Amino acid sequence: METLKFALQGMTKLDRSKFVKTLRMPYLKVPAQSVGKIVGLPSILNNTIKKEEGLKPIMDSADNKNEKLVLFNYDKLRQNGEETTRSKIVTELKAVIGDEAPSEFGTLEKEVMYEKWSVASCLKAVLPPGLEFKGFSQIGHIAHLNLKEEILPYRFVIGELIHDKLPNVKTVVNKTDKINNEFRVFDMELLAGEPKYETETAENGLRYKMDFSKVFWNPRLSNIHERIVKKFDKDSVVFDITSGIGPFVLPAVKQRNIRKAFANDLNPLSIDYLKENIKLNKISVDKIETFVMDAADFIRDVIPEQYSKIAESDEKELACNNEISGINFHAIMNLPALSLTFLPIFRGLLRHHSKLRAYFQSHPFWIHCHFFVKASADEEDEWYRNNAECFVRDTVKIPDMILQDVHYLRIVAPRKQMYCVSFQLPEEYAFSTESVNTTEINNKRKLDGDSESNELSKVAKVS
Question: Which phi and psi (to 5°) does residue 373 adopt?
């Protein structure tokens, strides 16, 4: 089938009037009552046009209501010799519908205007050879693009095409820089539509309201969220150290019915939306306690306080029931550029609660740490895994620490992978009399610029 390609290449300002083309398509007339007999024939399936550009492979005849037009793709007919292919089609039709089968092809001319062309066809027409639009993420009514530098001159045309062609998209934005502010929110440029950034989306059966321009959200992380949530049960207590708007704690409470969640984020708007999403998903407010703190301070101050309260209360119940409870604790760190810098704060976490050592031994405390591993040259997957293990052990300075789960998550960019390492907090580490100065850690992060590149450069190489 003919396309718009080559007619509009290089367009950087959308001119809808130029997206017009007259298509010429071979066709055969067949009796309307015979359509059901021929639609599954190989010659029909393999050579007709696709259902696009406002056309269907089988259409009503304009001059005879008892006939249908079967429209063919010129390019497909030519692949194995046009005359040979046409002859095979006619022969196959005669074998099925007999004398009523057509013997000659006609040609249908149809003018297709801008409104009828698909977004894919329009994008192919606009972009020069060698440039390809890879797609976008959609968050409610917002289409979020992450365009490479070489395609940026065409960003406004791309944005308007997406806005025009997809009725449920009202706002189109492009990520313009790395996530580099204290709230991990990227800068973005409006390409088309209205500057309305408050939206609602769904993930793993729950609804999330947010201002996409002011809080962090990545729809590509849904599997990462779901994977961790599946580790919880009704006896789990979850500390989400960088919770955002709730993609871990909300399903943990709603779907896994966990005992309690403590959600923290430095961005007050994230916590505001988390509270809205608690109501939106009809979750009991008593199940999730929220905080607006630096992650390091949350680990140092909130986790030991809440842990001791739960443990002491549980011990009292144990004394009455004479049964060991199944309570288990989980700390989630999903700020990949910085998560590893928080691990040393767990040293001496419970140093003021030594009486809880026996309780700690029978109630596991899990840490789920998400982070990036970056290579300076092409490496095998095993290299990334080895470095992920080495980095965690080196950060906590326990060379032989057992890592129960070292899980590859995704390729973030060339030579850059994301991992999640889950391990049980070692008893001697948690009750160590040594501790880390969180002020020094916070200052060091500021000096480093909180950048992914600085953090990744610390990865220890494994030979």
Answer: -125, 125
